[in-house]
C-alpha cells in the first residue's frame, strides 16, 4: 500500500510558512507583497481557480488585486491592463488566468508580463533562467510536485524520473527541476514508443497528460513515487467527478507513494503561487 501524499495538508503548511515570511517582509520593507490576478471572461473553471488564488493570497497576508475583464475584451485593452500592472510598484506578481478566449493572443500576453513579476514562470526569460540554473520564478505546478517529492523521498540524486507529457507549463519545467536535483530524466509523450516499458523503469513518475486514468498498475515499478498532475472531469452514474491521469485505485497498491486527485498537486500549485509572489517581491526589493 502506498503512502498517500496529502497535497492539501502540505499546501496549508506552505501557505503558513509564506504567511510568516510575508510578515517579516512587511516589517523589513514596510509594504505588503502584491499579487494581481487578471481574469478574462466567465469560464467556470477559471473563476474557481481565481477565487481560490485570491483566498490563499489573503491567507498568506499578500495584497491581492483582482482585475476582471469581459470575455469580448480586445487585445489592446488587455495589453494596457498588463502594462499598468507592470508599472505599478504595489504589484510584485502578475498572473493572467489561462486559457484566454480564442480571439486573444496568449503568447503575446505571456511575453508582455515583466519577467520579474511573472509569478507563473512562463515568460521566455524565466524559462531560459530555469534551464540554465539561474535565479528565476519557477512554474507553480512543477515546483509543487518537486516539494512533494523532496518531502516524501528526501534527496532525489540518481533517481530515475519519467515525466509523461511535454507541455511548457508542466512537463518541460518539471524535467528541468528534476535534472537540477540530479535525477536521470526521461520525458515521454504522444509519439513515444513503448511508453509503458519506459515508465516501468521509473523511481519517480510524473503524469501530466490530460487523459483520465491512463496510467495503470502494470506501468509502475513496485515502490515508485507517482505524482498525478492530471485534472479530468468524467461522469460516473450521472454525476461529475474529477480524476487524474493515473488510475488511482489500480496503481495505489503497487506504488510506494501517490498523490490523489483532487487533493494532491492542485492545492500545492496554488500554494506555490503564493511562494512565488513573495520570491518575486524579495527579488525586486533586493535590487
Ligand atoms: P497539454 O495538453 O499541454 O500536454 C499534454 C501532454 O501529454 C503532451 O505533451 C502530449 O503529447 C501528452 N500526451 C497526450 N496524450 C498522450 C498519450 N496517449 N500518451 C502519452 N502522452 C500523451 O497538458 P498540460 O501539461 O497543460 O496538462 C496536463 C494535465 O494536467 C491536464 O489534465 C491539466 O488539466 C492538468 N493540470 C493540472 C494542474 C494542477 O494544478 N494540478 C496545472 C496544470 C495542468 P504531445 O506533446 O505529443 O501532444
Brief digest:
It comes from Candidatus Seongchinamella marina. Pfam families: THF_DHG_CYH (PF00763), THF_DHG_CYH_C (PF02882). This protein has 287 residues and is an alpha/beta fold.
Structure overview:
This protein is α/β, with parallel strands linked by helices and 287 residues long. The chain folds into 2 domains: 29-114, 3-Layer(aba) Sandwich (Rossmann fold), CATH 3.40.50.10860; 140-266, Rossmann fold, CATH 3.40.50.720. It has helices at 7-29, 44-59, 75-87, 106-112, 124-131, 140-153, 171-180, 195-199, 248-251, 265-286, and strands at 3-4, 34-40, 63-69, 93-96, 160-164, 184-188, 204-207, 225-228, 232-236, 239-243, 257-258. β2 (34-40), α2 (44-59) and β3 (63-69) form a beta-alpha-beta unit. The longest helix has 23 residues, at 7-29. The model has no long low-confidence stretch (mean pLDDT 97). The structure holds NADPH dihydro-nicotinamide-adenine-dinucleotide phosphate. NADPH dihydro-nicotinamide-adenine-dinucleotide phosphate is lined by residues 141, 164-167, 169-171, 188-191, 195, 208-211, 229-232, 265-266, 269. Residues 141, 164-167, 169-171, 188-191, 195, 208-211, 229-232, 265-266, 269 line the site of NADPH dihydro-nicotinamide-adenine-dinucleotide phosphate. Pathway: One-carbon metabolism; tetrahydrofolate interconversion. Catalyzes the oxidation of 5,10-methylenetetrahydrofolate to 5,10-methenyltetrahydrofolate and then the hydrolysis of 5,10-methenyltetrahydrofolate to 10-formyltetrahydrofolate. Residues 139-284 form the Tetrahydrofolate dehydrogenase/cyclohydrolase NAD(P)-binding domain.
